[in-house]
């Protein structure tokens, strides 16, 4: 597991909340985040969402979108089409509230064990892969957006 | 469900039926989900949760719980041998069917699936609660786990392939074709090789359900499996997916809705086959 100090600074407080937490507390916090999930604004993307923005093998049918901001950072958004996809919504809200507008390098530096720290080590392989896929696709688009910024 | 034309209509109950039996002590409602947060977010009043990772699997080796653990699990939830266990969950009842299937390994036949699953209950604006029920401990006597009838192992699947017997791959067409993303660090469904088991036909699980999440009527299911894909009740069929949950859904459809007597679920599925050394693969 990565040390919390390896996480981007803006994520560390959240990650510390999940240290040594019991399963009930974990669920309560994640459900609270899930309730704060905000879907991608329509000026960024509209249904039907493009397939190349879809997180592969995510059972919650999540999509990831990015845009450059004026400060040279990355704004990013999610859609979660499965109405029962509460874990995907929770992860999306945590990432957005902690990393929105950060530089691509910061977003790309999120350790992959974030999913296990947030959701617990006993999360199923399939669920873990779907959530990891959200993080991986966010990093991919953050990198792509950064490269496009530099080439302009 | 009496006019459905299903082979075993008692294996399905409606949301209405569940609503009418919430306080029936002879019935235990069980939620089994893909998303581990859903039960905590609210569930059918009186429903307990059985989680496939923590409750149904051995925590050390890749296998299901044994008789003693199964008895403890059911006793803990106040389920007796005569209790009718009704499963429901997210993802069109994938995990509900999987839990139902595991219960059959121990011979608990007094079981059913709530047609339409969790989403149908929610969309009908039926009550949900966050209150976790506690039932008095029961005494449950299970038979020894019996895998031979409904479960297939890798070597049995290999013999099945060599014997040119029918297999159904219920994963998505992309998984069946072995299409992978080529993104760095992207999770690749936990297997070193992609594709499908030779001879398997691709019939995604989702083709068996209607837009509202309920199972298709029997005539539509017969058209799908028999007319369109050439399967027959007399065949010895193995279903598989990635880890056995989606294929438990198709196993349920073939066994209980269409009445096929010889269907086994290969729970090792692609995470075993796609990582096994030397087994044949097609793309």
Descriptive account of the structure:
The complex is a heterodimer of chains A (152) and B (283). Chain A is mainly alpha-helical and 152 residues long. Helix content of chain A is 49%, strand content 9%. Chain A has helices at 9-17, 23-35, 86-99, 104-108, 114-119, 125-151, and strands at 62-68, 74-80. The longest helix of chain A is centred in the C-terminal third of the chain and has 27 residues, at 125-151. The radius of gyration of chain A is 15 Å and the shape is globular. Chain B has 283 residues and is of the alpha/beta class. Chain B has two domains: 9-123, Oxidized Rhodanese, domain 1 (3-Layer(aba) Sandwich); 154-273, Oxidized Rhodanese, domain 1 (3-Layer(aba) Sandwich). Chain B is built from eleven helices and nine strands. Chain B has helices at 15-20, 38-41, 52-56, 67-76, 94-105, 117-123, 154-162, 173-177, 218-227, 245-257, 269-273; strands at residues 12-13, 27-31, 48-49, 84-88, 111-114, 167-169, 201-202, 237-240, 263-265. In chain B, strand 2, helix 2 (38-41) and strand 3 (48-49) form a beta-alpha-beta unit. In chain B, helix 5 packs across helix 10 (245-257). The model of chain B has no long low-confidence stretch (mean pLDDT 95). At the A-B interface, helix 2, helix 3 and helix 6 of A face helix 2, helix 3 and helix 6 of B.
Task: Offer a concise description of the structure.
Chain A has 152 residues and is mainly α. Chain A contains six helices and two strands, in the order ααββαααα.
SSE layout:
The complex is a heterodimer of chains A (152) and B (283).
Chain A: H1 9-17, H2 23-35, E1 62-68, E2 74-80, H3 86-99, H4 104-108, H5 114-119, H6 125-151
Antiparallel strand pairs in A: 1-2
Helix pairs in contact in A: 2-3
Chain B: E1 12-13, H1 15-20, E2 27-31, H2 38-41, E3 48-49, H3 52-56, H4 67-76, E4 84-88, H5 94-105, E5 111-114, H6 117-123, H7 154-162, E6 167-169, H8 173-177, E7 201-202, H9 218-227, E8 237-240, H10 245-257, E9 263-265, H11 269-273
Parallel strand pairs in B: 1-5, 2-3, 2-4, 4-5, 6-7, 6-8, 8-9
């Amino acid at each position: 597991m990565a040390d919390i100090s390896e996480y981007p600074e803006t994520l560390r407080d959240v990650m510390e909340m999940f240290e040594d937490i019991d399963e009930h507390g974990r669920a309560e916090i994640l459900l609270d985040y899930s309730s704060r999930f905000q879907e991608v604004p329509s000026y960024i993307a509209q249904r039907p969402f493009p397939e190349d923005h879809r997180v592969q093998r995510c059972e919650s049918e999540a999509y990831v979108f990015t845009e450059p901001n004026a400060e040279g950072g990355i704004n990013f958004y999610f859609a979660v089409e499965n109405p029962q996809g509460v874990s995907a919504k929770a992860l999306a809200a945590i990432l957005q509230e902690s990393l929105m507008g950060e530089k691509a390098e910061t977003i790309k530096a999120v350790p992959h064990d974030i999913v296990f720290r947030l959701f617990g080590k006993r999360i199923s392989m399939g669920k873990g892969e779907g959530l990891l896929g959200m993080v991986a696709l966010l990093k991919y688009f953050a990198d792509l957006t950064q490269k496009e910024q530099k080439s302009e | 469900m009496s006019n459905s034309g299903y082979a075993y209509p008692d294996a399905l109950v409606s949301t209405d039926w569940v609503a009418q039996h919430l306080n029936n002590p002879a019935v235990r409602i069980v939620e089994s989900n893909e998303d581990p947060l859903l039960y905590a977010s609210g569930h059918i009043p009186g429903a307990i949760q059985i989680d496939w990772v923590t409750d149904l699997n051995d925590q050390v080796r890749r296998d299901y719980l044994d008789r003693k653990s199964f008895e403890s699990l059911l006793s803990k939830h106040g389920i007796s041998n005569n209790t009718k266990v009704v499963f429901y969950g997210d993802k069109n009842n994938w995990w509900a069917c999987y839990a139902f299937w595991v219960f059959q390994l121990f011979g608990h036949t007094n079981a059913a699936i709530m047609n339409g699953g969790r989403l149908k209950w929610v969309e009908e604006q039926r009550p949900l609660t966050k209150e976790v029920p506690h039932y008095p401990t029961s005494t449950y006597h299970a038979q020894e786990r019996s895998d031979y009838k409904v479960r297939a192992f890798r070597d049995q699947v290999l013999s099945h392939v060599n014997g040119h017997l029918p297999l159904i791959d219920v994963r998505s067409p992309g998984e069946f074709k072995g299409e992978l993303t080529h993104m760095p660090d992207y999770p690749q469904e936990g297997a070193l090789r992609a594709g499908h088991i030779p001879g398997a036909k691709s019939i995604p699980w989702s083709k068996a359900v209607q837009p509202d999440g309920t199972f298709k009527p029997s005539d539509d299911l017969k058209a799908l499996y028999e007319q369109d894909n050439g399967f027959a009740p007399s065949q010895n069929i193995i279903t598989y997916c990635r880890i056995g949950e989606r294929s438990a859904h198709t196993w349920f459809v073939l066994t209980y809705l269409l009445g096929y007597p010889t269907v086994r679920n290969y729970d090792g599925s692609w995470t075993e086959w796609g990582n096994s050394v030397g087994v044949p693969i097609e793309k």
